[in-house]
Amino acid sequence: MTESRAEAGRDAVHHPWFARFYARLSVRAETGAGVGPLRRELLDGLSGRVVEIGAGNGLNFPHYPAAVSEVVAVEPERVLRRLAVEAGLRAGVPVDVVPGAAEALPVRSEAFDAAVASLVLCSVRDVRRSLAEVWRVLKPGGELRFLEHGRARGRVAPVVQRGLDLTVWPRLFGGCHTARDPLDAIAAAGFEIVAFRRLRLPDRGVPLPSSPCVLGVARRPYASGGGA
């Protein structure tokens, strides 16, 4: 770990009200919205060293398979980070929770077999830079597992999403943006999209702008390039 990177990212994000709200909502969503099974699917088959960006309150931790030798979980928000530390102590694999921002991951280059991004690319300040950092820390051939919400398809819904992103949504929900396209961003960063499927989180009859999601696997190619 590079200490200067860790210190720089320690309080890069501070949304204490949203963090407490998210911590309660996310726990309920594990069963109520079926997110728990999606996390298991997201992490199935992983092995070796894994870096998780924007680990939140650590809800992925129970789902890491035993073949994972270490998880370095990067979380910039201090309230969520404290909860993640507690979750890491209960995990079945070694978890090291560290402060840091996705745009400057406090870890060595090409040190990880896989990276995990779940419901985080919506809220990073710079998607392009964050994915370049994921590229940097992955070994060539390493996987990026992602579960992200993003831009809806159709004519009306994307317009609504863009309007919300320009007004109240990011302010109310910890910097979250609903109209970003994670698949396009991952491909533009140079990753090879291996597989993906689109889904919608249950919205209890109310079409939430954050309901459209994509779950998939991308890979850092062995050839040079990308990470721009």
UniProtKB/TrEMBL annotation:
It comes from the Bacteria. One of its GO terms (biological process) is methylation. Pfam families: Methyltransf_11 (PF08241). InterPro entries: Methyltransf_11, SAM-dependent_MTases_sf, Thiol_S-MT. GO terms for molecular function: S-adenosylmethionine-dependent methyltransferase activity. Keywords: Methyltransferase, Transferase. This is Methyltransferase type 11. It comes from Streptomyces kanasensis.
